[in-house]
Design brief:
863 residues, 28 helices, 26 strands, 51% helix
Length: 863
């Protein structure tokens, strides 16, 4: 076999590390032979998995190397037998311990799978370290910096030709839809107009043809393999399709230049076709203007440049090359590999993004594992009274402390192994539901070499760390007192156990507080009056409708069932992306640099969206001059310095007009941002229909829309979105964190209550005789309950006091990302504290009542 694929290196090294020299050649040879057989018959992935499993299968004492620390297999076998006897005898204890640990590991496994999936994004291109995305910092005169993700078209050629840091530069538009003719139906593809350098920068491989024709012929196209399957059929690979003509529904014909491999799913750059950007410029000449920031730009750095040095090289490319006006707009480069996770900028500097949630959930996973480990310690020491006689007998029979510690550590590791197996079962069972929750398609790669070896390390780490304290504690018990069944309640151990319970409840109360806060903030976001009515509003693209046919379409739709109103705009009014610093008004300081959001609408827009006018009037289609007039919001009026803006002159993009109205402020972006200055203008060619449905008649309205769509645009797919759903979808990350925090909080509560239960159990066993004596002396049930429960309530109060400032600072930091937010008032802290208090009462109540009702004669019989 030429250049055989080697077996997994980690597994092979592990085999060489443990295997006896006399056996290594034979075992390794057999495994290699089996690996290559599997490789040729079952594929690389299966072969690697089986090789790793076989290496683990040979990990047994008979295969170990001879060392000075040779393990006595009989002793190890005895430890394991004793451990399983204990598990069988103490079924309830074993189940509680394993279940608590399994819950913690399951949560951590889910977070690991989610974080691992997030970290895969944008890692696929060859030479990814040299691929960067170009952004622009737009600086207002006030010092505010807006980071734009779009750039002007002329910048691409300038960067590639004039700046040595840039080896290649590619540009794409925001996206395009191509409807191809295919008898008897049509095929709809999503893609973009882009420059051919894109395929060289990202090293995208081709199955047929290449991208070279895109340099020479604007009416050419390349498509993905999935698009080829949809358009040419499943057998397209058996044909040579290069040079064929592809015609869309508008009778535009493109020559097929190549078919490229599908873009991996873990990518922010996704497309099924590319048409040369030169063609886009031919049909949209205005895109060539330096002031038109509408395009995405990717660059590949020259090998000798780093991100920092390339930034220095190209920073002033716009100000140095824009011919029509002086503009201070520094460029910044962001590595493509970080584009998905690091997508938030403040004052021109990278300040986070989805990576914040990756870190938050990673910390949550670690905390939950710690809680599970602490719970394990508490539960083990709680059962020390029942195992004290066993420990005493072993010591009297000559057992040394090291052997006792080894026994208890073996039990801890085995219990962790059982918990891990149970958690793996939980994870595989619940993974489909988790995928729905997270909006992902995560696979449970439990049989990869990395995961198996990592799991073994995790099991040993959790087992040893969690079992270390119980092992040392049990081995240190005095043999005479142990044989008498007398537990030594020394102060240091008692404080340590109580400290663990306080630690558990500090984390739990913080998570309860965080869960409540996130829930209330999201309720505020979803219920807040945005200044417009997004309920029962359907968004639908114009498609092929012209302004003239839209009016006919609108009139017909208004007469159909379920339809209350129809308006038009060039974008979603709750998520306006278009902005400009071009507007001029009388009295504007030439040095003032302010960016205004721009929304183009028809005259039906403001009444349909229930936007309130503070002054002036709405657009009127019967007044011809309104096509040049403007409506502004309160923020814009304040920036322009107008006390009475009605009738004032306003000009931008070469269009002079007057301000005819002022709206009250409404949210044009998410609640993370404050109110923005807005200018609304009339647009004769809008691109988005806004359709208001009648209350409780949504289905009838959709049926009406679909009927009319088939009449006017039969070739286009009927596609629509509810505005309130689109608004809610912008908070997907927050919703995911809210739901995961809720589930993890429930798990933390269960684990913490198990830890508290263990301490109650331990204390009642120690105080059994004391309680018996008190009852004989006439103590009431209330005093017994107070004796048992008082100290635990004190522990919860201490935990609440410690958790409150921590919870405040953590959630204050999270809320600071919202310009509009709830306040952290006392009620939130009280709710979290009362929740912790009630949980404590419910947890200790059963144990305390059972101890108080116990017959004192049973407790004092041994005396």
């Amino acid at each position: 076999m030429n250049n055989p694929t080697p077996p997994p290196k980690l597994a092979d090294r592990f085999l060489k590390w443990y295997c006896h020299e006399d056996l290594l050649d034979e075992i390794q040879g057999d495994l290699y032979e089996q690996y290559h057989n599997n490789l040729s018959t079952k594929g690389r992935r299966t072969a690697r998995q089986k090789f790793t499993l076989d290496v683990i299968r040979f990990f047994r004492p008979s295969s170990f190397k001879s060392t000075k620390l040779t393990v006595n297999t009989q002793i190890l076998s005895n430890y394991i037998k004793v451990a399983f006897r204990v598990f069988k005898k103490e079924k309830a204890y074993t189940f509680t311990n394993v279940f608590g640990l399994a819950l913690g590991i399951t949560c951590s496994l889910f977070i690991y799978l989610w974080v691992n999936d997030e970290l895969k994004y944008n890692q696929w291109p060859a030479g990814v370290d040299g691929i960067h995305y170009v952004l622009v910092n737009q600086i207002e005169s006030s010092g505010t910096i807006h980071t734009w993700r779009t750039t002007p078209q002329p910048l691409r050629e300038v960067l590639q030709d004039k700046y040595p840091a840039i080896e290649k530069a590619a540009i794409t538009n925001w996206g395009a839809t191509l409807i191809l003719k295919k008898d008897p139906d049509h095929v709809t593809l999503s893609g973009h107009y882009g420059s051919p350098e894109l395929f060289e920068i990202f090293s995208i491989p081709f199955i047929q043809g290449d991208h070279q024709l895109l340099y020479k012929q604007p009416e050419s196209i390349v498509i993905s393999e999935s698009a080829a399957t949809r358009y040419f059929g499943d057998d397209w690979r058996s044909k040579n399709l290069i040079g064929q003509s592809i015609t869309d529904k508008n009778s535009r014909t493109f020559t097929l230049s190549g078919i490229f491999e599908n873009i991996p799913k873990h990518s922010t750059l996704k497309f099924d076709f590319t048409i040369p950007f030169d063609y886009y410029v031919l049909i949209n000449p205005s895109q060539k203007h330096w002031g038109n920031y509408n395009h995405n730009m990717y660059v590949k750095l020259a090998p000798e440049y780093s991100t920092a040095s390339a930034n220095d090289n190209i920073r002033n490319a716009i100000s140095e090359n824009r011919p029509d006006q002086q503009e201070t707009a520094p460029l910044i480069l962001q590595p493509f590999s970080s584009l998905y996770l690091h997508n938030k900028y403040e004052q021109g500097q990278l300040s986070g993004g989805r990576i914040d949630y990756v870190r938050l959930l990673s910390i949550s996973a670690i905390l939950i594992l710690i809680l599970a480990g602490v719970n394990f310690m508490n539960l083990t020491t709680a059962k020390s009274a029942k195992r004290s006689k066993e420990t005493g007998i072993r010591k009297v029979m000559g057992a040394v402390k090291s052997s006792l510690r080894a026994q208890f550590l073996t039990e801890a590791i085995l219990m962790t192994l059982l918990a891990f197996i149970l958690s793996a079962f939980f994870t595989m069972t619940l993974l489909p539901y988790f995928n729905v929750l997270a909006g992902k398609e995560i696979d449970s790669d439990f049989f990869t070499p990395q995961f198996i070896l990592g799991s073994l390390g995790l099991i040993l780490s959790i087992g040893i760390i969690s079992g270390l304290y119980p092992a040392f504690y049990m081995a240190s018990l005095h043999p005479i007192l142990s044989l008498k069944g007398i537990m030594r309640a020394d102060r240091s151990n008692a404080l340590f156990r109580k400290g663990l319970v306080v630690f558990q409840f500090v984390i739990t109360i913080v998570m309860i507080f965080g869960s409540i806060t996130i829930y209330k903030q999201l309720q505020y976001v979803f219920s807040k009056n945005l200044g417009l009515d997004r309920e029962n509003v359907v968004k639908m693209g114009f498609g092929d409708l012209t302004p003239q046919t839209f009016e006919i379409y609108r009139e017909k739709l208004l007469k159909m069932p379920g339809i209350l109103g129809v308006a038009a705009s060039d974008g979603d009014p709750t998520n306006i992306g278009s902005s400009t610093s071009d507007p001029y008004w009388v009295g504007r300081d030439e040095k003032t640099e302010v960016y205004f959001s721009i929304l183009a609408v028809n005259s039906d827009f403001i009444p349909l969206m229930s936007i309130q006018l503070k002054e002036g009037r709405n657009f009127d289609r019967s007044i011809a001059s309104d096509s040049n007039n403007y409506i502004i919001n309160e923020v814009s009026a304040s920036i322009m310095g107008f006390d009475d803006p009605i009738g004032k002159d306003l000009e931008f993009w070469g269009q002079k007009g007057k301000i005819i109205g002022v709206t009250k402020n409404f949210h044009i972006q998410s609640l993370h941002a404050p109110y923005k200055p807005l200018i609304i203008r009339m647009d004769p060619q809008p691109s988005l229909m806004l359709i208001k449905t009648k209350p409780n008649m949504t289905q009838e309205a959709i049926a009406s829309m679909e009927t009319l769509h088939k009449e006017f645009q039969p070739d286009r797919t009927f596609d629509f979105t509810f505005m309130d759903k689109a608004y809610n979808d912008r908070y997907k990350s927050e919703l995911l964190v809210s739901q995961l925090t809720l589930y993890f909080t429930i798990v933390a509560i269960v684990i913490s209550c198990l830890g508290l239960l263990s301490l109650v159990s331990f204390n009642t066993e120690i105080k059994t005789k004391e309680i018996g004596i008190r009852k004989v002396m006439g103590a009431s049930m209330g005093s017994i309950l107070s004796l048992i429960g008082q100290e635990f309530l004190v522990l919860i109060i201490i935990a609440f006091v410690m958790a409150s400032p921590l919870a405040y600072f953590v959630m204050q930091d999270w809320l600071d990302q919202f310009a509009f937010r709830i306040d952290l008032d006392v009620s939130l802290f009280l709710l979290a504290g009362i929740s912790g208090f009630l949980l404590t009462l419910l947890t200790i109540g059963h144990h305390a009542i059972r101890a108080a009702l116990r017959n004192p004669a049973d407790a004092l019989r041994d005396e």
